[in-house]
Write a structure and sequence with these properties.
2% strand, mainly alpha
Length: 344
């Protein structure tokens, strides 16, 4: 028996219950301790990633014009940090059952908006990658509205308060009602949405003539990386929600939420950085980026102008002739790369 197990067992034994009940209480205390450490660790990951990306965020986000991408990035990053901090407080403070009764609804209501923020970033990425087609934008908005309605439905009335045995005070946690598995839908809904967006992106890759482009590689690589990690986390949450021990049903929720927040914020920063690097490619199909949508400072696009200059005009003693005159000579093809801001 480890040191923590001994502490929890002694704490349970001090309540004077029989041996079977004492073991159950000790197990509940141990799992609760794991939940508290786990959530605190994931909160530390979120804060660490924010600090590491702070310089890039200042250059690529704060200095850019206000757009939908900038708003949703800042919402996901900063509201996410606030929501995680409040969840950490609920998991670690001491509440009576009456105090927790109105607060346990916050467990889902707080974090659902973080999840919707990350889904919004994925939706805008998909919309940009598929050429900003109107039907796609409308479809993605409708799917997000449907997901929002479902999450509100579950969070507002289908989360049951967890009450610790015997003790009068403890952390405020929640789970599914007996026989229901609606809370697991909070994690399944993003999986379905991500599957649709990933399938659309992969289909688009097969139709592109610029698969070697760095920007396309960033879209595909990081999109698939996000999908695999977050979908695995969501499915893990669903599996835990279906097991019988209510003390650990929601133990992985922070893992998924923090992974989604960190990866989506990194995706926006990487696409902005790639757009600013002047990714050059030749294509019959335009591939817009989040950096372009977000109006990042000084994005560069490829503009080709052809200028025909007869070289014999530069002969010795010759001056420029009037425009429109036709002379024999060698034509020079000049490719000019222009700043988008100047064109506007």
């Amino acid at each position: 028996m480890s040191g923590m197990d001994e502490v929890t067992y002694l704490a349970a034994k001090s309540m004077g219950a029989d041996e079977v009940t004492t073991q159950q209480i000790a197990t509940a205390f141990s799992l609760l301790h794991v939940l508290q450490v786990y959530t605190a660790s994931m909160m530390a990951v979120s804060v660490y990633d924010w600090l590491v990306c702070l310089k890039d965020e200042w250059d690529l986000i704060w200095k850019a014009n206000w757009t939908a991408v900038k708003f949703i990035y800042l919402w996901t990053r900063y509201y996410g940090l606030l929501a995680f901090a409040l969840e950490l407080w609920l998991f670690n403070a001491q509440f009576t059952a009456e105090q927790c009764k109105p607060l346990h609804y916050l467990l889902s209501l707080l974090v659902m908006w973080v999840s919707l923020g990350t889904e919004g970033i994925i939706a805008m990425r998909t919309y940009a990658f598929l050429g900003r087609q109107r039907w796609l934008g409308l479809s993605l908005v409708l799917m997000l509205l449907g997901e929002t309605g479902f999450l509100l439905f579950v969070s507002a009335g289908h989360v049951m308060q967890n009450i610790l045995p015997i003790v009068t005070r403890g952390p405020c946690t929640g789970t599914d009602y007996p026989g229901q598995h609606l809370v697991s839908g909070i994690y399944l809904a993003p999986v379905i949405f991500d599957c649709i967006c990933t399938a659309l992106s992969l289909w688009q890759v097969t139709t592109l003539h610029t698969r070697g482009s760095r920007l396309v590689r960033v879209f595909v690589r990081e999109g698939l990386f996000y999908f695999l990690l977050v979908s695995t986390g969501n499915l893990l949450n669903v599996i835990f929600m279906f097991q019988s021990n209510v003390n650990i049903q929601a133990i992985n929720c922070f893992l998924n939420l923090v992974l989604s927040q960190v990866l989506c914020c990194r995706l926006v920063l990487n696409l902005r950085r790639q757009a600013l690097s002047g990714d050059v490619h030749t294509s019959e199909q335009h591939v817009p980026s989040l950096g372009t949508i977000g109006n990042a400072p000084r994005p560069v696009t490829d503009t080709v102008n052809t200028v025909n200059i007869p070289l014999d005009r530069f002969g010795k003693g010759r001056q420029w002739s009037d425009a429109g005159s036709e002379e024999n000579g060698v034509k020079v093809h000049v490719t000019v790369e222009r700043d988008v801001d100047h064109e506007r």
